[in-house]
Amino acid sequence: MEIDIILEPDLTPRQVAELGQKAEQYGVRAIWSSNYFAHWDCFLSLVPLVQATSRLLIGPLAVSPFEMHPLKIANSLLSLNEMCGGRAVIAMGAGEGNIDCMGIERPEKLVRATREGIEIVRGAGRGKLAKGFKGEDFVVNLPCAYNWLSAPQPPLVYGTAYRGQMMRMEARVCDGVFIGCTPPEVMAKAMLDVQEGAAKREPDMGPLHTNTFWAWHLKRNRADGYRESRRELPWRAIKLQKELIMQCLTEEEAQLVRDHYDKFVAAWFDRSGNIQGLPEDIPNRLCEYFTSTGGLEDLDREIERFKLFGKAGLTECALRLHDDPMEALDIIGEHVIPKLR
Fold first, then answer.
1. Of 1, 128, 273, 300, whose CA is between 20 and 30 Å from 336?
2. At the top level of CATH, which class does the domain 2-232+291-340 belong to?
3. pTM, rounded to two decimals
4. Can you give the pLDDT at residue 79?
């Protein structure tokens, strides 16, 4: 199984390039830039990284067709792909934070609209928009032949999904599927949906990549790892949905978490990681179940977890780095990647 890295959106392009160069040396497969509102542009911030590397796959995660017309997404992606000689990737999904920030309404048939957006972006680099595109949610009214493309291969287009219907659709029409933050213990059910969709792929699409977003909070100082991980908890497990967190908590504990969700959000805003009103054991168990959290003494446990991801059918695992990303990358490159080869 390959390892990817997801970077925070507030890193400067120079920092992204420095991290990417080190990642390439360690054998990381791909670097993903985060697409957030009011942050560095997820395409432009990758340009120095493109110029500084030769093997890494490079691209943004995740971009919604509802925040930017898919034809314009395709133009940015194909430009990036030309600049890096065919190493560009993108992950597309229905969108969350950006959509909410801009007050954009999602279409009623969300899976269909997301599919059409993906088909436009993926088709643009494969000569499928030469006669335009007529969808129910998106159209391209003029021929777009993209005769200027010269990269040796088109970019890989991934979909991002948390639910079965979206997973099945994306496995059918995408080059890869990101399965959202799913621990190995419950990955089997998600993979059944992916496999059902993959069985309906066109023969010329090639093998399907399967990936997951996975937060990395292992630090040289174990207490720092738990503090950082608790800080990020309000965005885990689809914002700590009760049915998901009951995988590692009792029903009573899960309800306590739901009753104190605003305290989790407060701990993110004040950057403390201290969840008021809850015994620390409860958020710590959430950290351990839904992320890689701890210190160097916990590395063996996490390596075994990644091996379980591979056995479940994932071809890649994308690790999201937070504070001090170079330290995190060094730990991953020195201790994790060699054990997964």
1. 273
2. alpha beta
3. 0.95
4. 98
